[in-house]
Amino acid sequence: MSDRTRTQETEAEYADRFRLLFKKARIELGVSANATVTAFSFTILAFVNWLIAKRVEFTPATWRQYRSAVIFALEKKAEAEPKMAAMVASAVALLRAASPPGENGLPLRTSASKAKRFKERDLDRVCHLALSGRSPNAPALVHLLQATILAGCRPCEWPSATLRKSAAPGFAWELVVRNAKNTNNRSHGEIRTLRWQTLSPEHLYHLKVWLEIAQLPDYSKRQASLCSLLDDLTNKLFNRRALRPTIYSGRHEAIARWKAQYVNTAQTAEELAEGLAIVAALAGHGSDETATKHYGRPQKGQISCRYPSPCAEPIEVARVRKVFEVDRVPRHRIGKTGRHQHE
């Protein structure tokens, strides 16, 4: 057993993470969701071996977090059911002995090689190279990248998104997006609304054309083709980089830009709480946690004039504010100058 002191919040997060991982393992291993506790005991080692095999898909930090969560949950299970203690001990030993990805020759894959930023100069180079080639998918890729960096949508959200003229005073356009994470209570509601006071003809063109493309049949096949094309382009342009932009990097870049405008400019705890809620609402998150912890960090003074940040629907911001109180904000303490600082 680990003697490390954990907070109740951490233990709750570990338990949630274990449930999600175990559910995924059951699906991939073909174990019935209605399996009994006895059946569960027979799947512990299979689950742990599955997780160890999957670790090449995680960053070292993610693997350590998942390993800690699983060890915690299994040890709790052993405490509740002593007859499982021996099997749990064997499973925990396997987990503790497993090296993080990237060590002992294990490759780094997925998020470990994906950049969380898609800077404007890199975007320009990618778009230029795409359009100078012969790929029939190049125009669609450019539309997707430009639309994503502007609106920050997940790739799977585009087919159901709607661009329309805004009826809200002071705004010209709004994008209504069906939140992808709403099914597991990770979003603030079924939809989110992004509003712009104005959009340039170029931005409107990319948004409109990409939305038309996204609503055509076989979207998933087209998305895979665009991902493949982008991978080829970034390999040519940034072959010496450990981290290269992906389609999802555009969402990270958009959220970093929003944080620069709504969070980094906060002068008080109340302004900071409101800024965090705005970013979460624009990103389609149910709280400020994901937007502030797992997305690209803005650089100092990064408020782009080229890609205007949207405004969030106040009702959606209010929903996010209900999840956290202002007194939770100290993890982003306010400095002596009034600007907030990440702890």
Explain what you see:
The chain has twelve helices and four strands. With 343 residues, the protein is mainly alpha-helical. A hairpin with a 7-residue loop joins strand 1 and strand 2. The chain folds into two domains: 104 residues, no CATH class; 213 residues, hpI Integrase, Chain A, CATH 1.10.443. Strands 1-2-3-4 form a four-stranded antiparallel β-sheet. Helix 5 runs antiparallel to helix 6, helix 6 crosses helix 7 and helix 9 packs antiparallel against helix 10.
Concise description?
The chain has helices at residues 8-29, 37-54, 60-80, 85-97, 120-132, 138-151, 201-214, 219-237, 249-262, 269-283, 289-293, 314-323, and strands spanning 162-165, 173-178, 191-196, 311-312.
Please identify the oligomeric state.
single chain
User: What is the overall number of helices?
Assistant: 12
Alpha-beta content class = mainly alpha
CATH topology of the largest domain: the name is hpI Integrase, Chain A
**Rg for CA atoms:** 22 Å
Q: What keywords describe this structure?
A:
single chain, about 350 residues, hpI Integrase, Chain A, 4-stranded antiparallel beta sheet, globular, disordered C terminus
SSE blueprint and pairings:
Elements: H1 8-29, H2 37-54, H3 60-80, H4 85-97, H5 120-132, H6 138-151, E1 162-165, E2 173-178, E3 191-196, H7 201-214, H8 219-237, H9 249-262, H10 269-283, H11 289-293, E4 311-312, H12 314-323
Antiparallel strand pairs: 1-2, 2-3, 3-4
Helix pairs in contact: 1-2, 1-3, 2-4, 3-4, 5-6, 5-8, 6-7, 6-9, 9-10, 10-12
